[in-house]
Amino acid sequence: MVRAMGLAGLLLGLVVVPAVLVSTSLRHGAPRTEADPESSSWELAADAVPEDSLWPLPQWVRTYPRQLQLAPSRFQLVHGAGSSAGPGCGLLQDAFRRYYEYMFGHSRRRTWGRRPLAARAEPELFQLQVVIEAGDPGCDRHPQLTSSEAYHLTVTEPVAILKAYEVWGALRGLETFSQLVHEDDYGSFLVNESEINDFPRFAHRGVLLDTSRHYLPLKSILTNLDAMAFNKFNVLHWHIVDDQSFPYQSIYFPELSDKGAYSSNLIYTPTDVRLVIEYARLRGIRVIPEFDTPGHTQSWGKGQKDLLTPCYKGGQPTGSFGPVNPIWNTTYDFMTKFFKEISSVFPDELIHLGGDEVDFSCWKSNPEVKEFMKKQGFGIDYAKLESYYVQNILDIVSSYNKGQMVWQEVFDHKAQLKPDTVVQVWMANNYAHELSSVTGAGFTAVLSAPWYLDYISYGQDWKKYYSVEPLKFPGSEKQKKLVIGGEACLWGEFVDATNLTPRLWPRASAVGERLWSSSNVTNLQDAYKRLTSHRCRMLRRGIAAEPVFVGYCAHEAR
Amino acid sequence: MVRAMGLAGLLLGLVVVPAVLVSTSLRHGAPRTEADPESSSWELAADAVPEDSLWPLPQWVRTYPRQLQLAPSRFQLVHGAGSSAGPGCGLLQDAFRRYYEYMFGHSRRRTWGRRPLAARAEPELFQLQVVIEAGDPGCDRHPQLTSSEAYHLTVTEPVAILKAYEVWGALRGLETFSQLVHEDDYGSFLVNESEINDFPRFAHRGVLLDTSRHYLPLKSILTNLDAMAFNKFNVLHWHIVDDQSFPYQSIYFPELSDKGAYSSNLIYTPTDVRLVIEYARLRGIRVIPEFDTPGHTQSWGKGQKDLLTPCYKGGQPTGSFGPVNPIWNTTYDFMTKFFKEISSVFPDELIHLGGDEVDFSCWKSNPEVKEFMKKQGFGIDYAKLESYYVQNILDIVSSYNKGQMVWQEVFDHKAQLKPDTVVQVWMANNYAHELSSVTGAGFTAVLSAPWYLDYISYGQDWKKYYSVEPLKFPGSEKQKKLVIGGEACLWGEFVDATNLTPRLWPRASAVGERLWSSSNVTNLQDAYKRLTSHRCRMLRRGIAAEPVFVGYCAHEAR
């Protein structure tokens, strides 16, 4: 049992239904008989058999054959009796409105052919009552690693009840409830009586977007946050700047984007950044900004003089610059002020400090750097210089009470890390071994290596992402608990607003289920069926997710 | 010299400027110094230096430093003196309006910062005069293989002149002229004085769309036709039906789509089909429909009883069906009527009859088929049965005065083909050898094998498509002339309206230039620069073409 599950499950379990802590999934007890989706008997229509469209699959689901009907004009999402949240909880109010729209909104345009409610025999479901059990529901807080996302949902006549310890669990439960509701051919909205107990397997479930190789308009980022919520992701890893451009508009150092962005229009203003953070918060998604140094910083040098290392050739500066200059005090003065701003602009407990792919050649060419190496006794081991730099940055950021996330090289090069540093494992080559090493040294790990979604290939590559087992590495139970989750990374070299959505979704959905659902949810044929439905649902909700395979969506055929 | 070039060049050459038949490209005489686009010195902004944004590169371009200015309020696209076309030529009138919009339309929204015309020193270009030289300009005709697409363009003060033998050349020249016009940072529209002589290297330059694996809404098809025109493609190969669905609504056999389409809403009505054909015609694009038989026909069987072969196992029918049943007269009665309709609905000289990937196992299982094989003396060579079927279909279609296009297996299996049959080479394995065989036997060939764009991969795969030389196969000059062109194929297993455009463009643009431009236009760095600009232009014109590599478009930065 990993940390997230233990914690979240426990909090809810004690209060509501201890029995459901058992992670047996009834859903998967029954034998399944679907044909291989790539054989000649494809499932062409992605039709919404209710329980076959849940994604990611909850930890524990029981559905009953009895169907209840929902009348859009009467059905209400409301705060239940005993909830610590009420109409003053903007986060839930917003979610109620949003999920009402997802369930019924698309049908407004089609009022033809709708059978009157009375014509059906099914009893009616009148409300979904949401009960938050913690004393402080968390309405105005930001989600964090230790937030509870667990929830318990019962759908029975005449009202459904969604219980959660905090609002974050309610958000996840609302998503699940909305996935249970389906529309029949006559335009009636139905839900099967059911009971669901659910919580995430991993606490950190991220998507990395890269806004430096290509600028992504604000709208693309917000659309992606919607899609993330549909897939129960809870971390946006915002790789906001890199060599190519610096679109983050700094308050203290406006020249960074004035000169380092592709254009003064292709930037994220403080207002934009606040909007992204709030839009994400309302969906239970943390925003972890990455300001990668000392490598990947060419764009920083344009607006900040004397920050990067001048490269030399034949005893003369070439006019080119390398990584951040680690030997000058001015570098650390700048970083101190810069990360003070970042620490205050981004509310998340973590800042990602990068640290990947530092090219030592420019440092090696620079006589001042060489002199410094000698003085420090680093010999010719430039990894030591890198660690020297990184530790200074870690100290600066720690002084602002922020935790840190870094790429694996920072660990590999033996920097002195704070014990709570999160190490992101990204190198595809033998990542299981790296997970062993990182957790063996007692550090927390996030896995990305098998989930670089920018590497596209022909066919159903979602199966490859889906079939990863993050805890399959040599290590103790204690080590496994240190793997807090993973991230699907969509680097931006070949991605901008034209292709972001269909390239990321539903491929990232495979990662979403792997990180949320029980480790025994691995049947590809079952996943194919649900993913196909889920993709159609995303499409209905305005996410241009690409097709999984041949076929069509039921709503396209209406 | 291939056929297209010889013919088109000759027609125009005799009338206008015989000298330009020389295929020297002055454009490529100058040494080029661009950095490798994948090195650290990427070209980040796709800025529009005029001659660096032409795509596909014309056969002969000379540009002069002198710039002329265009005033959107005054500039006119008009019929020139001596043109056989006039205001009655709807095709050109429509093209004038369209290209005016492409050149100036996007700037209407931004009237700020526009310098008054008088403030610039440049002389003004007042008109583009279009002169069609053939007695019949072709305004109301459909383009065909032998249509002339050659044109000659001179841009000098005070008017530019575009001469073409037929309207098809004028369409290509309008595209080129619109690519020369660029907007500076102050919102002024400028064009360099220049002279261009141009004609296609290959006469058949196609894009295959597959509307069976996924239905493509009409709008997606029309958008794609726009993009094709921007890249001087001239054939839409419409792979309209296949195993998965039959979206073509037949007039004689409406049950084919009633029962064989994904849904009765996911079809192309006769009106839709007419619209596609007309929209394509106005852009100089032929529509070649493919009705692939005897394989790939599962969807046909749903609406047409007794058409497909019943499969057997252990002496009993299994209830499954195989390819079209080649032994019954009713099959040919149906096909006679069906192709009569197709021949009249689609005006193009060619119908694609498919013939690929026929699975013999069902035929082999069927006792009636076995009996027929014996009677015909085919032994156990089912390729002979396939050829028997195909020849019957070829005869039927020939009787309607239509030419035929087939996939390579029809040739490989030694069917008796009409001499003018076009054989499409699609198998990646040793396609050069296949081109040799097909042309060696005297048949016309179209190459697709290296251009299956549904096979995606990471990185700049356009370079792979671009670097293909279609005539690099063992054969005589006469054989080479039989290669009339090629097609970029986007099969639809993983493609629908969500990802069609960014997946196809600008990757297909690489094929577009290979098929249009001179064989010596092969410099990847030069192509990178122009393709990046061209992609931005497509974006400005509403085509969501994906990025070639890191960077941004100048218009996004404004």
UniProtKB/TrEMBL annotation, chains A, B:
<comment type="similarity">
    <text>Belongs to the glycosyl hydrolase 20 family.</text>
</comment>
<dbReference type="GO" id="GO:0004563">
    <property type="term" value="F:beta-N-acetylhexosaminidase activity"/>
</dbReference>
<comment type="function">
    <text>Hydrolyzes the non-reducing end N-acetyl-D-hexosamine and/or sulfated N-acetyl-D-hexosamine of glycoconjugates, such as the oligosaccharide moieties from proteins and neutral glycolipids, or from certain mucopolysaccharides. The isozyme B does not hydrolyze each of these substrates, however hydrolyzes efficiently neutral oligosaccharide. Only the isozyme A is responsible for the degradation of GM2 gangliosides in the presence of GM2A. During fertilization is responsible, at least in part, for the zona block to polyspermy.</text>
</comment>
<keyword id="KW-0968">Cytoplasmic vesicle</keyword>
<dbReference type="Pfam" id="PF00728">
    <property type="entry name" value="Glyco_hydro_20"/>
</dbReference>
<feature type="signal peptide">
    <location>
        <begin position="1"/>
        <end position="19"/>
    </location>
</feature>
<feature type="disulfide bond">
    <location>
        <begin position="311"/>
        <end position="362"/>
    </location>
</feature>
<dbReference type="GO" id="GO:0060473">
    <property type="term" value="C:cortical granule"/>
</dbReference>
<dbReference type="GO" id="GO:0016020">
    <property type="term" value="C:membrane"/>
</dbReference>
<feature type="disulfide bond">
    <location>
        <begin position="536"/>
        <end position="553"/>
    </location>
</feature>
<keyword id="KW-0326">Glycosidase</keyword>
<dbReference type="GO" id="GO:0006689">
    <property type="term" value="P:ganglioside catabolic process"/>
</dbReference>
<dbReference type="InterPro" id="IPR025705">
    <property type="entry name" value="Beta_hexosaminidase_sua/sub"/>
</dbReference>
<comment type="subunit">
    <text>There are 3 forms of beta-hexosaminidase: hexosaminidase A is a heterodimer composed of one subunit alpha and one subunit beta (chain A and B); hexosaminidase B is a homodimer of two beta subunits (two chains A and B); hexosaminidase S is a homodimer of two alpha subunits. The composition of the dimer (isozyme A versus isozyme S) has a significant effect on the substrate specificity of the alpha subunit active site.</text>
</comment>
<dbReference type="Pfam" id="PF14845">
    <property type="entry name" value="Glycohydro_20b2"/>
</dbReference>
<keyword id="KW-0443">Lipid metabolism</keyword>
<dbReference type="InterPro" id="IPR017853">
    <property type="entry name" value="GH"/>
</dbReference>
<dbReference type="InterPro" id="IPR029019">
    <property type="entry name" value="HEX_eukaryotic_N"/>
</dbReference>
<keyword id="KW-1015">Disulfide bond</keyword>
<dbReference type="GO" id="GO:0005975">
    <property type="term" value="P:carbohydrate metabolic process"/>
</dbReference>
<keyword id="KW-0458">Lysosome</keyword>
<dbReference type="InterPro" id="IPR029018">
    <property type="entry name" value="Hex-like_dom2"/>
</dbReference>
<feature type="domain" description="Glycoside hydrolase family 20 catalytic">
    <location>
        <begin position="202"/>
        <end position="518"/>
    </location>
</feature>
<dbReference type="InterPro" id="IPR015883">
    <property type="entry name" value="Glyco_hydro_20_cat"/>
</dbReference>
<feature type="domain" description="Beta-hexosaminidase eukaryotic type N-terminal">
    <location>
        <begin position="54"/>
        <end position="180"/>
    </location>
</feature>
<dbReference type="GO" id="GO:0030203">
    <property type="term" value="P:glycosaminoglycan metabolic process"/>
</dbReference>
<keyword id="KW-0325">Glycoprotein</keyword>
<keyword id="KW-0378">Hydrolase</keyword>
<dbReference type="GO" id="GO:0005764">
    <property type="term" value="C:lysosome"/>
</dbReference>
<keyword id="KW-0732">Signal</keyword>
<feature type="active site" description="Proton donor">
    <location>
        <position position="357"/>
    </location>
</feature>
<protein>
    <recommendedName>
        <fullName>Beta-hexosaminidase subunit beta</fullName>
        <ecNumber>3.2.1.52</ecNumber>
    </recommendedName>
</protein>
<feature type="disulfide bond">
    <location>
        <begin position="89"/>
        <end position="139"/>
    </location>
</feature>
